[in-house]
Design goal:
heterodimer, A: alpha/beta, six-stranded mixed beta sheet, 11 helices, 28% strand, elongated, B: mainly alpha, 23 helices, 74% helix
Chain lengths: 306, 531
């Protein structure tokens, strides 16, 4: 079967701003795919192209085997969308909005709706204008999660949720994956993506800079080593692939490129190792590899969402 | 922290945001007032012709209801400003109330004020800043019209009084909006309520002015707009009446401050009641949603149209008795159709009802754009709802709603008129007379849709077109514009009914143009980016 989402070399500009600059993105059926990047990286623009709200300047976008622009209405029956910024009709109640969106999508599961309202502790009788940001977000989440759809497009869906409801959201998403559904989860919250996503695309300036499962990505990133040695180390500074070395007597802390790991360990054991801990890179470190090395103000200021 | 801290910064922010629209509005107002004054003076160079025209104006119920009397028939200034004076006053009032709602309740509703409120901004600062900006805009507009009028040769004292009157009226309606902005949570409703106060003020003075001959002149004194007229610029210059406006403004402002101090942030005075936990079965289409969102507004408009119909129909029966001078008869006949004076009056008034229905249609159709920019179209378009189907939702409300409003005004005017004249056929004639306005109204809605589809940022062109067409109809003859220019307005092609000939061709043409504009707009909307 086709990928749920397949984007190739997608570009989209707003006036002089390039929001997407040759983006590649593949979301496989049945996976939760994390789309990770800071504000303005192009995450929202990509999702809005997938929803057929924006027309790409160039490149190919396929969604559930169809063309997101031409087949929008047909495809939308098979997906649900949670926007990053949820604005509701002020004089409708949350319950009315959930029902309306569900019906327009082609029906929603009443039992699941009731269950989700309970789990998210959302009062459906309040008027939308009386909801806080977090509660508005819950309305959109309940509407999306109670629909029987193949694909969920989630654009920073947990913004404004408290940690308890955040956990409920994660449970729900894992349940849906167990049922074979697919989700594209755009986020700048690393822990969320790390906890949920099977695969991750890191996006920067409208381009994918890193793709793969966390396991795969970790293979590419430096491992942090902390070791107590029998004696002061020798020659570690000059070894290729070793970074950020700190030597305190017989104790060493450093990072090492995966390719040089074997060589370095041999060097360590030749001195004698009394204790050693190694840590795989966190997503944060992966992320910072692409963003941390330069002031990212210029990029984050770019409002690709506007 | 003082409750007014940060007012200066908020005033600066408001001026920064509104600088273009404020400047444009004021310049257009000044030019319109000065130019029409100058044109009128040229049209009636000698006192005899002025007196003759002024007498005709004062003798016709329709012009009295619409613009009020000319208090000094010999004064060229009074004649020169009898239309643009009251229209300018209404315009300044509308400007003031929009400024206040825009910088108070809108900001609160969108949450932007919260951002500011967390900085060093006192609790009464936003209201104070909005009132100051509105008062400032009123003063500049007043000073501008005064200078403009003096520049085209109007007497200085009257010009200054008229300008000051504009400013005071602006302050008064700014204060009214200050009150309504505290009462309700929605900016739209707050502006609507303040607008309704203005509408009632206009209607009340219209009734008083029209029925002054039967001893009801005091009714005009119940309306702030009536007070503005009673300053009588160029016709006695009663400066003291300005004090009434300022007193009213002071009372309203005080009320606004008291209310603002008593309520919570983002709250109204009327608490929100819980609503249904599930949606009614019929709320299952974009059209059902659009109706749900717009129905309260529609019913309010319908109520206003019933009243307009009753007033127009009721006044029509008495038109003949008020027309004492042959000049007046001549004037009203020239204003309207060629048959009876009553028909001429009704044709003019129903023409205005057509313009009003277009105002409804424009704001209903502009909901498309406001829903889009508020990001409320996006979740709907992300469901199985196509763009065209979604666009038709609010568009249907605009097209059908404006048509229904005209039916309402035709029926209510027709019933009253039929009763008073004792001719049941009058009902049918007036309904037809109201219905012939529909195609022209639809053309205006079509302009909004075309702009929405092709150049969404310019969707306000709908208002520009409507105001432009209205001014063409109102002032075109005054400026001796050629027929070809006047014919740009769709309203120029509406058959003068009742009394005129019901020509099908222009109605069909107008409908075709409206349809064409809508098709173009929807095609554009299908192609463009949303958001």
């Amino acid at each position: 079967m086709d990928a749920a989402v397949a984007i190739e070399k997608l570009s989209k500009s707003f006036g002089g701003t390039r929001a997407l600059d040759g983006l590649d993105l593949e979301v496989r059926v049945g996976e939760i795919h994390g789309l990770l990047g800071p504000n303005g990286a192009g995450k929202t623009t990509a999702i809005r192209v997938l929803l057929g709200l924006l027309r790409a300047d160039s490149g190919v976008a396929r969604l559930l085997g169809g063309d997101p622009w031409r087949d929008a209405e047909r495809l939308h029956r098979r997906l649900a969308y949670v926007p990053g910024e949820v604005t509701l009709w002020p004089n409708l109640t949350g319950g009315e909005v959930i029902d309306l969106l569900g019906r327009l999508r082609g029906g929603l599961d009443k039992k699941r709706r009731a269950e989700l309202l309970e789990r998210f502790e959302l009062d459906p009788t309040r008027k939308a204008r009386a909801y806080s940001k977090g509660n508005r977000q819950k309305v959109a989440l309940v509407a999306a999660l109670s629909s029987d759809v193949e694909l969920l497009l989630l654009d920073e869906p947990t913004a404004g949720l408290d940690p308890l409801k955040d956990a409920v959201f994660r449970e729900c998403l894992v349940e849906l994956r167990a049922q074979g559904r697919t989700a594209l989860l755009s986020s700048h919250i690393l822990s969320e993506v790390e906890a949920l996503a099977d695969r991750v695309t890191i996006i920067r300036d409208g381009r994918a800079v890193e793709v793969g499962s966390l396991v795969e990505m970790r293979h590419l990133a430096r491992v942090t080593i902390s070791a107590d040695l029998a004696a002061a180390p020798d020659g570690l500074t000059t070894m290729p692939g070793v970074h950020d070395l700190r030597v305190t007597g017989a104790h060493v802390d450093f990072m090492v490129d995966p390719g040089s790991l074997d060589q370095v360990l041999v060097a360590l054991t030749s001195v004698g190792v009394t204790s050693l801990t190694s840590q795989p890179p966190t997503l944060e470190e992966l992320f910072l590899r692409h963003y941390g090395d330069e002031s990212s103000t210029a990029h984050t200021e770019r409002a690709a969402t506007s | 922290m003082s409750s007014l801290a940060g007012t200066t910064a908020l005033v600066r922010l408001a001026l920064r945001r509104d600088r273009i629209i404020l400047a444009a509005f004021i310049v257009i107002l000044v030019v319109m007032v000065a130019a029409s004054a100058s044109a009128t003076v040229k049209l009636y160079p000698d006192e005899a012709s002025r007196v003759k025209t002024a007498a005709a104006v004062n003798g016709a119920t329709s012009t009295l209801a619409m613009y009020g009397p000319i208090h000094d028939e010999t004064s060229s200034g009074a004649l020169a400003t009898f239309k643009m004076g009251i229209m300018g006053a209404v315009a300044v009032a509308v400007l003031a109330l929009f400024i206040v709602v825009r910088h108070t309740r809108s900001e609160e509703e969108t949450g932007r004020l919260e951002l500011l409120g967390a900085t060093v901004v006192g609790r009464q600062a936003p209201l104070t800043a909005a009132l100051l900006v509105a008062a400032g805009a009123g003063l500049v507009a007043g000073a501008g019209t005064a200078l403009g009028s003096i520049a085209v040769g109007m007497p200085a004292a009257g010009s200054v009084l008229m300008g000051l009157g504009f400013a005071c009226l602006g302050v008064a309606f700014a204060a009214v909006a200050g009150v309504t902005a505290q009462l309700v949570k929605s900016a739209r409703t707050a502006a609507g309520l303040a607008g309704a106060v203005l509408g009632v003020a206009y209607l009340v003075r219209g009734i008083g002015d029209a029925a002054a001959a039967s001893g009801l002149g005091w009714v005009s004194w119940l309306s702030p707009l009536g007070w503005w007229q009673q300053t009588r610029p160029y016709a006695g210059d009663r400066w003291w009446v300005l004090a009434l406006l300022l007193g009213f403004a002071a009372v309203m402002s005080a009320l606004a401050y008291v209310l603002a101090a008593r309520r919570d942030f983002a709250a109204g005075l009327l608490p929100d009641r819980p609503g249904p936990a599930t949606a009614a079965a019929r709320l299952r289409s974009p059209l059902a949603l659009a109706w749900r969102l717009q129905r309260a507004g529609f019913f309010a408009w319908a109520a206003v149209f019933v009243v307009i119909g009753l007033v127009v129909g009721g006044l029509a029966a008495n038109v003949g008795s008020f027309l004492t001078s042959p000049q007046a008869r001549d004037f009203i006949t020239r204003l309207g159709g060629e048959q009876s004076i009553r028909d001429a009056f009704l044709a003019v008034e129903l023409g205005f009802a057509g313009v009003f229905a277009a105002v409804y249609g424009v704001q209903a159709a502009m909901r498309l754009r406001s829903e889009e920019t508020a990001l409320r179209a996006e979740p709907l378009l992300a469901t199985a709802v196509g763009r065209v189907k979604w666009a038709w939702s609010h568009l249907t409300i605009a097209l059908v709603g404006s048509a229904l409003l005209l039916v309402v005004v035709g029926v209510s005017a027709g019933l009253v008129s039929a009763l008073q004249v004792g001719d049941s056929g009058q009902l049918g004639r007036l309904v037809v007379a109201a219905l012939v306005q529909i195609p022209a109204v639809w053309v205006i809605i079509g302009i909004v849709v075309a702009a929405f589809g092709l150049a969404p940022r310019l969707v306000a062109l709908g208002w520009v077109a409507l105001i432009g067409f209205m001014l063409l109809g109102e002032l075109g003859a005054l400026f001796n514009l050629s027929r070809a220019v006047m014919d740009i307005s769709p309203f120029a092609h509406v058959p003068r009914m009742p009394g005129g000939h019901l020509a099908a061709a222009p109605l069909l043409w107008l409908t075709a143009i409206a349809a064409g504009l809508i098709v173009i707009g929807l095609a554009g909307f299908r192609r463009r980016d949303v958001g």
